[in-house]
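**Archive record**
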Amino acid sequence: MRVLITGMNGFAGSHLADFLLTQPDAQIFGAGIGATANLAHLGRRVAFISGDLTDARFCESLLTRTQPTRIYHLAGQAFAPVSWRDPWATLEVNIRAQVNVLHAAARAQSSARVLVVGSLDEYGRIEPRDLPITEATPLRPDSPYAVSKIAQDFLGLQYFLSHQLAIVRVRPSNHIGPRQNEQFVTSNFAKQIAEIESGARAPVLRVGNLDAQRDFTDVRDMVRAYDLALERGVPGEVYNIGSAHAVTIQTVVELMLKQSHLAIRIEQDPARLRPSDTPILICDAAKFCAQTGWTPTIPLETSLQDILEYWRNQVKGNR
């Protein structure tokens, strides 16, 4: 099995590499730009090719060089608030990179199975009558990021229909875990707590909207789902992936503060509030679970504890 993971040096990509290395005879290639610290623990067990996926010529040479039998396309700009500040940058990076990867595969007449990763954010402005969210729920994107993910999603469908590429599309819920960028909510809280514990920050946890409810899935469960999507998913189909359970951000904060030995005050920061923030997202993953047999296994409390330990080690290492 020759695997290409775009964005392998990112959060989910590095965890996917971890998981696939447990399988026999997996030859793993990664591609993308940026720092590779997330891959340091893998040593020479993977090959990372640095390059810009928005460059069509790079993508063509990448597929020629790696000859993958599976492609996991995880590269892109994944933080919704950034898309508010510079909408076009997010649209350009997410759409162009995927077009290049799929077009290169089509030109090469590749038989590789391809995973296109959308987002539960595609459903956007959810009404109470829409819950839980199924694959048939209307798409009402409420951020430029969500629009970019819809475009990626439907480009995957288009290349399946037009070029018969073996593309499986997924719409994952919020996934969390160690190595996630500090921009994201659980990682941000964990870093603040770790810095407070080290004395580098005052004992105040700065937060945004604590009333929002989200469907959190551990990244290690999520990458196992990605593997199953290409192993057992039907090309051309789209699948929601998530825990089917929503918790408030307030609950997440309380669970994380319980794991600290210090008294920490919570303070809302207006700068952390979004122009648009869907009140509740709950994923119905019944279709995916029935097709693949997947079920999440890692409790939220464990995920949060592991994230906090990761940031404690990071903060300690930076002192």
